[in-house]
Amino acid sequence: MQQPKVLVVDDDPWVRDTLKDILEGVSCVVECAGGLGEGKTRAAAMAFDIVFLDVVLPDGSGLEAIEAFRSSLGRPEVLIMTGKASADGAALALRHGAWNYLSKPLNIDDVQLAVAQVVEYRRSGGWFPTSVLRLPDFVATSDTMVECLHGVARAAASQVPVLIVGETGTGKERLARAIHEHSARASKPFVVVDCTVIPEPLMESHLFGHEKGAFTGADRQRVGLVALAHRGTLFLDEVGDLPQSAQAKLLRVIQEKTFRPVGAGDERYVDFRPIAATHRNLEKMVQEGRFRQDLYYRLAGMVLRVPPLRRRKKDIVPIVQDVLLRQTESSAGELKGLSPDFVETILSYSWPGNVRELIHAVLHALAMSAESPTLYAIHLPEHIRAQVAAKNLGHPLPSAEPGMTPPMVPPAAPTSSFHQLTEEAWPTYKAYREKVTAEATRTYLDALMKRSRGDVARACALSGLSRSRLYALLKEAGLGVPSSCDATKPSSP
Ligand SMILES: Nc1ncnc2c1ncn2[C@@H]1O[C@H](COP(=O)(O)OP(=O)(O)OP(=O)(O)O)[C@@H](O)[C@H]1O
Q1: What is the pLDDT at residue 280?
Q2: For the chain, which has fewer Cβ within 10 Å, the N-terminal or C-terminal residue?
Q3: Average pLDDT over residues 237-264
């Protein structure tokens, strides 16, 4: 893109002139209009890249004109600006296709950042915002994750509160930090409030602080997390776990920008941007009366949904390679390869713990692989192999996270000795796991001995098992012990 072309639509001449100055300062070509009619006429005559659009205009609402501007000659991105910043308005603007939402009085950094983001977005063909994000430790290969990063870039360019929704370990906190690190508040604190660990009676003093002597045990003054986040970002992790009493207090500080530490006589001003995350269905909690609707709207100015790993399999191998690369760099060793059975297993597993679980599994496999230059499935944690083996045999294990994956259908006609999962005969997890593990071990050993043609040394090398362990397992599984497998020989490590 050469010089970005920007249209400013605002009835206040002072706003128009100020924005014109700021935008011309970053090499934009700027035209201005005092109302919707004039703005639309200009947008029909010139191909703009960006429209800065006021909400309350003499001839109508800017919010209702977003689509008309978006479909005008240059297909510009629309940045809504209003003096009456409200989370509802922000959500409405974004739903109508606005690029972002800026509140007045406009902040020069916000304006410049938003323009830079749009320019980069359009330069890259409108699809690869990762180029503006510096996230070398974050892998996003699948379309859904690239789209998610696009949301991160948009969120970073504005001050809108963000709600990040996704299962545990999907990267919600990493993305919240990314939004902060790329926002105009980057040089200020990013403060984490873990809503699951603070006990309800202590929530108020943790959030707002307390004066010395405010209650029994308050032997000195304490600064709360809200005050620590002044001018920065307050990250409310697992906000769905916030008790009702704390929800009311949080709503107040977000709305009023003031709070009172426990035991203090005066109100204090605070300016922070809330970013919240949850694995829960907050909309449902609102319907059930378990989460305040007004707080939900305040937090969900923009909603980012992070898909679970099992729905973006394209990311799995690149994440593994990324972990391997980092480990190799830090240990100065050789980069290990991945065997086809390793790849097959990690692609078949359901990853209820998502990326966090995948990273741990790779680290586990690396430790188990010792000197082997290649990672095999056998190096993965046992529960992963057991689930995949059961799935391959047509007996998927129940999901580790009830409610997050479709319920398992019990096998209609069992073909092996697996427990049947029915309401009437539901096995304990321990019994089920033992059965499945035994069955999977038997399948593995049978295939292993066939592949190594009964050569124990080769079987040990392939499986990573010691000679004595292999012998014991074969015996336990009721499989024939090959003549070359002599338990009296010293075992390899
Ligand atoms: N796409 C990714 N690429 C590389 N690392 C990732 C990716 N997604 C997540 N991670 C890593 O996985 C781990 C878990 O991420 P994070 O803590 O952000 O998840 P979360 O969704 O906030 O989890 P929880 O809900 O349990 O708090 C972190 O170490 C993070 O850096």
Answers
A1: 94
A2: C
A3: 93
